[in-house]
Every structure is written in structure tokens, then in C-alpha cells.
Amino acid sequence: MAAQLVVKPAVAADIPAIVHLFGELARHHGEMQPNNPRYGVPSARWREIVEKTLGDPDEHVLVARSDVEVVGFVRFHYEEKPWGTSCEVETLVVDEDWRGRGAGSRLLEATEEAAVANGAGGIRADILIGNDEGVAFWQARGYTNFALRFGKPLGEG
């Protein structure tokens, strides 16, 4: 099925599909961390975030499109680190019906190509603790776990 997919930069017409995929991601992650407030974000807020992201020249969003629909997306940006430029993957999500069919791999390959073209010395991604499928996806593509990130909600907003 991967041969039927096209990966390209996201455009405004892709916003509803990306918002839908953010909703899938929130449901999936919410099952793993039901008390985490970040997974209760309403779709209107996801839409605001996507619109802002697509308008930001420092943010990059690629979509994987089948013949009829967007089936996944990746969002990334570049950060300067002491060791050089890092490509930071913020989100990579594939529609549940398309998982295991090559969309995630195609999105990651396109991200890696963009990172190399932009002089990045590496790529980093955060995977939610408990997301064993996500960990397996990244490890199968040569990524290794080298850090543990901590977070804490502050206030109510």
C-alpha cells in the first residue's frame, strides 16, 4: 500500500484532516494517560494550533495522502544545539486504519531527507511512556532511546 501514498507539504485544505488526526492522537494517548489534561484539548483548539503552525515558516508539516484522503502527518522544526542543528519531530501520527501500511515510514523518510537537506546532524522525537507501538516504530527505523523527558502541568491553563 505504501506505493499509493504521496508525501507533500501540508496546505490549508489539509487542516480538517490534520485536526482529525490530532483527535485520534489525543484519544490514543489519553488511553495511556487518562489524567493528563493535554489530551482533553477540544478540536477547535487543535484547529487554531494547526492554522498557526502552517503559517509559521519555522514549522514544517508534511502529509501522507492516499488517492482520496490525508492518512497521516508529521510536524517538525529545527533547533540549534551545541553539537549542531537538530531536527525535532513534534508529532507523527497515522490514521488507525492506515497503521502498518507504510505511511509512518514514508513520513519519517521524507522528514529525514528534509533534515539532511537543511544540514541537521540528527533527529529527535519524544515518545509517550506506555506507547509501546510508538517505541517499536522508532526503534525499527534505527532510533535509540538516549534520554528521559520530564514534565509537570502548571496551573489550570
Keyphrases for this structure?
157 residues; alpha+beta; Aminopeptidase; five-stranded mixed β-sheet; 4 helices; 5 strands; 34% helix; globular
Structure description:
With 157 residues, the protein is α+β, with helices and mostly antiparallel strands. It has one domain: Gcn5-related N-acetyltransferase (GNAT) (Aminopeptidase, 3-Layer(aba) Sandwich). Helices cover 34% and strands 25% of the residues. The protein is built from 4 helices and 5 strands. It has a 5-stranded mixed sheet with strand order 1-2-3-4-5. Helix 1 (15-32) crosses helix 2 (43-54). The chain is globular, with a radius of gyration of 15 Å. The N and C termini lie far apart (42 Å). The model has no long low-confidence stretch (mean pLDDT 91).
Précis, in short:
This protein has helices spanning 15-32, 43-54, 103-117, 132-140; strands at 6-9, 59-65, 70-81, 84-94, 120-125. The relative contact order is 0.16. The protein is built from 4 helices and 5 strands.
Kindly report the spatial arrangement of strands forming the biggest sheet. 1-2-3-4-5
Indicate the overall shape. Answer: globular
Portion of residues in helices? 25-40%
CATH secondary-structure class: Alpha Beta
The second-level CATH architecture is: 3-Layer(aba) Sandwich
Which residues sit in consecutive blocks of at least 5 with pLDDT less than 50? none
